[in-house]
Design brief:
By secondary structure, the protein is mainly alpha-helical. It contains 6 helices and 3 strands. It has a 3-stranded antiparallel sheet.
């Protein structure tokens, strides 16, 4: 291989790396924007993003078991214990014994938990809707990329 071909490959790789670095930065800044308003709403309640994730998933599936939530979040019981307990103490989530198995705890949002989850998630849904409206041709591609990233292990 000639030195020109080697140089072209290095140049192409560097350009690709530079583009990917720019993509990473956009992802970081986009995520910061995506989470900033919910973070502001959670802060006075002394709650964080993990609490929002719990509220979100329990809000999508009332009666979800703790083990089901663990699977959705991809976390350990130890990591879930504190934030789940805090949400219960703030009367945002109720954990009750399942009728089908006394060993299973089922989770539901309280009315105040539903209100909070709706406010938090609506801010993010609104942000996504505005972005999709500005670039409708990107919406399908964005959903495809997010689906791929969500299923990577």
């Amino acid at each position: 291989m000639s030195s020109n071909h080697v140089q072209a490959r290095i140049s192409m790789t560097k350009t690709n790396t530079d583009l990917l670095n720019t993509d990473l930065e956009r992802f970081f800044y986009g995520y910061r924007t995506f989470t900033s308003l919910p973070d502001e709403m959670l802060s006075p309640l002394q709650l964080a993003r993990v609490h929002h994730r719990i509220l979100y998933f329990v809000g999508r599936e009332a009666g979800m078991s703790v083990n089901g939530l663990l699977a959705k979040l991809g976390t350990s019981k130890q990591a879930l214990n504190r934030p789940l307990r805090e949400l219960q103490e703030k009367e945002l989530i109720i954990a009750s014994t399942a009728t089908y198995d006394k060993r299973v705890k089922c989770l539901v949002l309280t009315p105040s938990g539903m209100d909070l989850e709706e406010k938090l998630s609506n801010s993010q849904r609104d942000l996504l809707s505005r972005a999709f409206a500005k670039s409708p041709e990107s919406e399908v591609g964005w959903r495809n990329i997010m689906s791929i990233l969500a299923t990577e292990s």
